[in-house]
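Human: You know discrete backbone vocabularies at least as well as I do. Show me how you would write down a chain together with its backbone fold. No explanation is needed for now; the record alone will do.

Assistant:
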Amino acid sequence: QVQLVESGGGLVQAGGSLRLSCAASGNIISIHTMGWYRQAPGKQRELVATSGSSINYADSVKGRFTISRDSAKNTVYLQMNSLKPEDTAVYYCNSVGTYYYSTIGASRPYNSWGQGTQVTVSS
């Protein structure tokens, strides 16, 4: 399977910045999409930004957050500027693609999630 490891969360004051990173590892053949989702307490998980054939942002983060990828490192980043208290959530990395399943000697699709990293923005 494919594993995702996130880093970069933390506590920041409103107006501050944070940069999240997520590295994918495993027998990856191709990555179609990498992206970020978040879940605040008592709320459903929501899309923040994705990078695939196109880049998409939630309306709430447009102009403040920037998603980027380093394909050579199978890594996706989320630069978060002008952070607001309402950005407080656990941020999850997601990746969709294909990997080599050695047990059967064939490629298989994957849809993997990271363990989540806490972002807290104080007012």
Observations:
- The longest strand covers residues 89-101.
- DSSP finds no helices and eleven strands in the chain.
- The chain has a mean pLDDT of 97.
- The radius of gyration is 15 Å.
